[in-house]
Write a structure and sequence with these properties.
The chain is of the alpha+beta class. The chain folds into three domains: 11-132, PH-domain like (Roll); 144-279, Probable inorganic polyphosphate/atp-NAD kinase, domain 1 (Rossmann fold, 3-Layer(aba) Sandwich), CATH 3.40.50.10330; 283-506, Sandwich (Tumour Suppressor Smad4). The chain has helices at residues 111-132, 158-172, 187-194, 209-219, 225-228, 243-251, 259-272, 301-308, 318-329, 347-350, 446-456, and strands at residues 16-23, 29-34, 38-43, 54-57, 61-68, 77-83, 86-88, 94-96, 99-105, 144-149, 176-181, 202-207, 233-237, 274-285, 290-293, 296-300, 334-342, 358-360, 368-369, 380-383, 399-400, 405-412, 435-441, 469-481, 488-490, 493-495, 500-513. It binds adenosine-5'-triphosphate. Adenosine-5'-triphosphate binds at residues 150, 152-154, 182-185, 207-211, 214, 239-242, 492-493. Residues 150, 152-154, 182-185, 207-211, 214, 239-242, 492-493 line the site of adenosine-5'-triphosphate.
């Protein structure tokens, strides 16, 4: 019981106190004290000198319930409380681990009295837990999740991990959910585009970043896109990259972890978090496609690695390291023109909380691109106020990079590019309204690139300048390849190489998040 020792409390803080035994019975007699913030447990049978009081934070509690003994001769009243506190793993990194406590009382010879006592405990604990958390919907109203799961994502274990790691927490939280296991590419895209989503409070994606890309772009294809794009989303890592999941884990103040540890942390965020503004980048291509992106756009080395390492998918996130080493031995450079709007220049436009983006059609600005070629005409359009059409030169206050041979161009709007790729340490939370542009020109050496990728795991790659590697915060960009060579990726999904431009839309979407209390929080003012 021993690691989270509590300092003595003022009895004035006590809401409930009573003695219980532990289930299964190990001979201990426990004093339980409930305060507004914690459940305190002390074993009264141990030496009071060495016998410390343990604190269990109610913010870490995902559920509790009371029950009677299985057999009618058992007069005891029972209750179970489940916590997911942060604990130190073998690697020295903290992650959330399940702790379930069951207590029994038989203070009376009347079974009902014993049961009523434990019921009053679970009711009070539940109330205090609600006060600690960030409920998605009004307190105590049932939450309904639609879970979209790609069984082939990553190493192919998403479904079994959902059953072992996610389902127990959802059930403890009494969340109602429907699990839809995708059978093919684009199924999730079509579902969110076409179906009535009003029965769901949150759309949960358990996969890599590719399935979230489908969901966001499906929402943007709907007639009611101005409402549907605000549908709260959530991510559970089931893929090999899991960049969005790793970023949210980071924003909530947790240490960088991968695999099922990251899954536990993200399930906790799903259960206890609240909808927060998610920046989306609207991309327009010369082939007249309009795409919404929540994570990254890339051309050159990083997208080559992403796509070429698909064949090592069974290895999980190691595939990116292997792919990087392979590509470093056969470096390619790509010719093109890179222009951008530095973040400073558009800070006036970016001030405030959440930008208004969706205007009612018709609107006569040349920068308004109809959301898609399948658009039914009367719905809303997403205005890209920072962009001019791709067939016109970029505005004169933009910057154009003098070099035109690149090894990599990366635009990233979250902190992580993969579960162990902390590529943008300057991003500390959601909704900052900035795109982080990184580019390496063809003069960069292999040694510098290797150093760059090795340092990226810890996010230390920007601590010292790397020749020919640049970082600029921007709000809009344009890439015009000299020839259509190489792979371009949006959120890790490949698109044909062509001219592309994009701009950030601050807080256009929403995602479930637990803001790090040490960071200034951004209030989601949108409905
Ligand atoms: N049942 C399915 N069968 C085949 N492809 C699917 C299925 N469900 C989804 N997809 C597609 O598979 C692609 C890869 O999915 P996703 O990116 O989520 O996983 P991943 O590639 O393993 O993860 P990561 O992007 O983190 O590396 C996506 O384009 C998605 O649309």
């Amino acid at each position: 019981m021993g690691e989270n020792q509590a300092a003595p409390r003022d009895p004035g803080e006590f809401i409930l106190s009573a003695t219980f035994t532990l289930v299964p019975d190990d001979g201990s007699l426990l004093s339980l004290i409930l305060t507004r913030r914690e459940l305190l447990i002390q074993n009264l049978r141990l030496d009071p000198q060495t016998n410390v009081m343990c604190s269990h934070l109610l913010a870490d509690c995902v559920g509790c319930h009371s029950f009677r003994g299985k057999d009618s001769k058992d007069l005891g009243g029972y209750f179970t409380a489940v916590f997911y506190p942060l604990k130190n793993g073998m690697t020295g990194r903290d992650y959330r681990q399940r702790e379930s406590w069951t207590f029994r009382t038989e203070f009376s010879q009347d079974q009902d009295e014993n049961y009523n006592l434990v019921r009053s405990w679970t009711e009070k604990i539940s109330q205090m837990v609600e006060d600690q958390g960030h409920p998605i919907s009004p307190p105590r109203s049932p939450r309904r999740f639609l879970v979209l799961l790609n069984p082939f994502a990553g190493t192919g274990k998403a479904l079994s991990q959902f059953e072992t790691h996610v389902m127990p927490m959802l059930e403890e939280m009494k969340v109602r959910y429907t699990l839809l296991v995708t059978e093919r590419r684009n199924q999730a895209y079509e579902l969110v585009r076409d179906e009535d989503l009003s029965g769901w409070d949150v759309i949960v994606v358990m996969s890599g970043d590719g399935l979230m890309y489908e969901v966001i772009n499906g929402l943007m294809e709907r007639q009611d896109r101005n409402v549907s794009i605000k549908k709260p989303l959530a991510i559970l890592p089931g893929g090999s990259g899991n960049a969005l999941a790793a970023s949210l884990n980071h924003y909530s103040g947790q240490t960088q972890v991968t695999g099922t540890k990251l899954l536990n942390n993200c399930t906790f965020i799903l259960c206890k978090g609240r909808p927060s503004p998610l920046d989306l980048v609207s991309l327009t291509t010369s082939s007249n496609r309009r795409i919404l992106s929540f994570l990254s756009f890339s051309w050159g080395l990083i997208s080559d690695v992403d796509v070429e390492s698909e064949k090592y998918r069974f290895m999980g996130s190691v595939r990116f390291s292997i792919g990087t080493f392979v590509r470093l031995t056969m470096l390619r450079s790509y010719g093109g023109c890179l222009s951008y709007l530095p973040a400073r220049s558009s800070s006036v436009q970016q001030k405030g909380t959440v930008d208004a983006h969706l205007l009612s059609a018709p609107h006569n600005s040349t920068n308004n691109v109809q959301n898609s070629h399948t658009d039914k005409g009367e719905a809303q359009i997403l205005e890209d106020s920072l962009l001019v059409p791709l067939d016109q030169p970029v505005p004169s206050h933009w910057t154009t990079v003098p070099e035109n041979q690149f090894i990599l161009i990366l635009l990233l709007y979250q902190s992580h590019l993969g579960a162990d790729l902390y590529a943008a340490p300057m991003v500390s939370g959601l909704g900052e309204g900035v795109i982080q542009l990184f580019y390496a020109t063809s003069s960069i050496s292999r040694k510098s690139l290797l150093k760059l990728f090795l340092a990226m795991e810890k996010g230390t790659h920007l601590e010292e300048p790397i020749p020919h590697f640049n970082h600029v915060p921007v709000t809009a960009f344009r890439i015009e390849p000299l020839e259509a060579t190489g792979i371009m990726t949006v959120d890790g999904e490949s698109i044909p190489c062509c001219s592309v431009q994009g701009q950030i839309h601050r807080g256009l979407g929403r995602i479930i998040n637990i803001p790090n209390e040490s960071q200034p929080s951004r209030v989601d003012t949108s409905k």
